[in-house]
Amino acid sequence: xxxxxxxxxxxxxxxxxxxxxxxxxxxxxxxxxxxxxxxxxxxxxxxxxxxxxxxxxxxxxxxxxxxxxxxxxxxxxxxxxxxxxxxxxxxxxxxxxxxxxxxxxxxxxxxxxxxxxxxxxxxxxxxxxxxxxxxxx
Length: 137
Description:
CATH superfamily: Dimeric alpha+beta barrel
Structural class: alpha+beta
Largest sheet: 4 strands, antiparallel
Protein name: YCII-related domain-containing protein
Domain YCII-related: 25-115
Pfam families: YCII
Family: Belongs to the YciI family.
CATH topology: Alpha-Beta Plaits
Number of helices: 2
Radius of gyration: 18 Å
CATH class: Alpha Beta
InterPro entries: Dimeric_a/b-barrel, YCII
Number of domains: 1
């Protein structure tokens, strides 16, 4: 039985931008289906390895709430779809290099998709916790 500690992992989020249907309209129905299969295989492989913890596409419709008291409300979608967030995946990986390597294997990159790789902070800077945090010595 090994007594070495488990390798540390760090939470990262992959944020998908420019995922609109216009990127895939030039593909035939069978090519689109093949891409969906490769996309799902990419994600399922990460889940099976225990690296992907959450993944979800987002609807195009959006609402922006801003200003004091949230008085300013603007509904979208907005015309600049390249900046729109189309979905996300959270990862537990060894670091930025592994998160980047995972992002580089995403099949949507060949069709204009952009992936932002962000490390998640271990704690909220406002002191709010939504789940228990193991005590540290």
